[in-house]
Prior knowledge:
By secondary structure, the chain is of the alpha+beta class. It has helices at 2-41, 45-95, 108-123, 127-132, 151-156, 159-162, 165-172; strands spanning 134-140, 146-148, 186-188, 195-201, 204-211. Helices cover 62% and strands 13% of the residues.
Amino acid sequence: MKKGIKNVKVMVFSFALAGAVLTGCGENKESAQNTSKEAHESIPQNTVENAEERDEVKEAESEEVKETEVKEDVAEGEEIKNAGAEEDKMETAEQSTETYEDNFAVDNEAAKEFAQKVKEATANKDLEALAALTAFPVYVGLPDVDIVEKREDFLGLGAENIFTDELVKSVENANIDDFEPCMAGFSISDGGTCNINFGVVDGILAVNGINY
């Protein structure tokens, strides 16, 4: 009888112990959950808001940089374009410091000055320089050429074709001190068939023909 009572006490004690263990585990789990919740709630809301604000600021700064780069590219393009236009004006100004009604209105000094530029371009075989002194369309007496309509076409003929040995020699030996104006203009030549002619075109002096 005593033995039965003892067994009952052992069972009761065991159930009580198991309950205590389960209770402890439940409290620990709840405590862990509360701790996790408290940790999550402890993150300041303004931290998230600040992060969003930083992203917005970075995006705005990126857009501003892109806009600035575009403006700089446009400005650079305009600057190059304007520089090209100014260069063209300068080239034209070299030829048009004075305007004339016709070839007979050109004084000898002006004719000599222009002829000297042609002589220098020819001596250096500088086709760009000669093109800058030429009015288009222009007559070029090369085989299968005749009239050259545009500056680009003139340059496309090539310096080796334009500046033949005969032409270079004739222009080099030409006397440009005493020009006699005529309806056709002025001729830079040593007296042979090869020459470069110039005259008044649209009020300014310009090369208007090359003969071979």
